[in-house]
Specification:
Blueprint (H helix, E strand, L loop, with lengths): L13 E4 L6 E2 L1 H14 L7 H4 L7 H9 L8 H14 L6 E2 L3 H10 L3 E5 L4 H10 L8 E3 L12 H10 L6 E5 L2 H9 L3 E5 L17 E3 L4 H14 L1
Helix pairs in contact: 1-4, 3-4
């Protein structure tokens, strides 16, 4: 990446990220919490590979998968709450930034490009995780899943982030690993980048989601932004 370039992306001054599966690899801690609940209930634990693709779907999907039960089961909500309690106590035991993401964030800041987080993860989990990873005070905006009455795929959280950061949606790009991320970004009028390295299930067809571009690793974001600037200059 050419360090001599200073903010080569003047037409795209803001980058918004999903959290789980995009900025932070949280799957190990979420899988640990799920398997702990399973063990407590006398069930066999699940292999990590079967849990990882579901992480972006949230706690409900993980409990449904682990216990093979629907949300209307009377045992479902107590199990979900136990899972959340365990996870909240072990937010960053194994969770780390995806390889290359630290360089991405450092470079955006070097270019004076604001970045923020828009996630469906609830506030009581989002903020402590970002604080422990030393990201909270660096982010220009953090919108959690319960910040507003609606969450992704509704565009409201992304539009709320833009309002908070005093930027136009058309000047933002949104990076996420779920179809709901791409849908929300598109509805908000943003360019959308698919984090193909994230938590995508085998049956999903991300090529059909209509993202502006696909990132196979976090560092691809910097290359994409630089390429866009070169294209605009021609």
């Amino acid at each position: 990446m050419p360090n001599a370039l200073h903010n080569p992306t003047g037409l795209l001054p803001t980058v918004l990220f999903d959290l789980d599966g995009t900025v932070v690899d949280t799957a190990p801690d979420l899988a640990f919490a799920l398997n702990t609940v399973l063990q407590e209930q006398g069930h066999a634990t699940l292999p990590f590979e079967s849990v990882r693709p579901l992480v972006s779907q949230g706690a409900r999907a993980l409990i449904q998968h682990g216990f093979n039960m629907t949300v209307d089961n009377p045992h479902f909500e107590p199990l979900r709450q136990r899972f959340l309690t365990l996870y909240a106590a072990n937010l960053d035991t194994y969770s780390r930034l995806f390889d290359g993401m630290a360089e991405v964030l450092n470079t955006l800041e070097k270019w004076d490009i604001k970045w923020g987080i828009v996630t469906n993860k609830p506030h009581f989990l989002t903020v402590p995780l970002l604080q422990r990873l030393n990201l909270y005070n660096r982010a220009a905006c953090v919108v959690s899943g319960d910040t507003l009455p609606t969450k992704k795929p509704h565009p409201a959280p992304l539009l709320h982030a833009c309002q908070h950061m005093d930027v136009l949606p058309t000047t933002c790009i949104y990076v996420g690993d779920a179809e709901t991320d791409i849908q929300a970004g598109q509805c908000a009028g943003m360019r959308t980048l698919l984090a193909n390295y994230g938590y995508i299930q085998a049956h999903e067809t991300p090529a059909n989601w209509g993202a502006t571009a696909t990132l196979d690793e976090p560092l691809d974001l910097l290359a994409w932004m630089t390429y866009q600037t070169v294209e605009q200059a021609l």
